[in-house]
Amino acid sequence: MAASNRAPVLVLEEDFLIALDLEEALREQGVAEVQVVSDVDEALALLAASHIGPESLRPLRSAGPGKGLDYPALAGMVQDRKAALAALPPLLRFYLSLGGWVSDHAVIDPQLDTLHVFTCVELARMPKARRESLRALAMD
Which of 4, 47, 61, 68 is deepest in the core (most CB within 10 A)? Predict the structure, then answer.
């Protein structure tokens, strides 16, 4: 078994049995923390509790009053991690699986009826095997 010093991993699977298999496989590969999480409040609470980036790197708040959504206000206990994870957009889940992080707030866009979340993926935090796989894809 590999050393248990890897970044936490969020499993991106809605099917419970597949998620269990993935969790087991990740743990066998040395991943110490595997999170498996369907509603928006749970998803935002998960971001707030586990994925906010370093204060020195987060973007400043520039939206006017009523246009921002603070994660810390939602950061309670996540009751169902699988449901919360499933509620996140697939691309965001992928970035988080690479060791990515988010800012401590989102900007509400009423014209597009969506939330914009600043997301950062630091290459240094990305699992080595994933980083090498992505580099190989980029070279093709």
Answer: 47
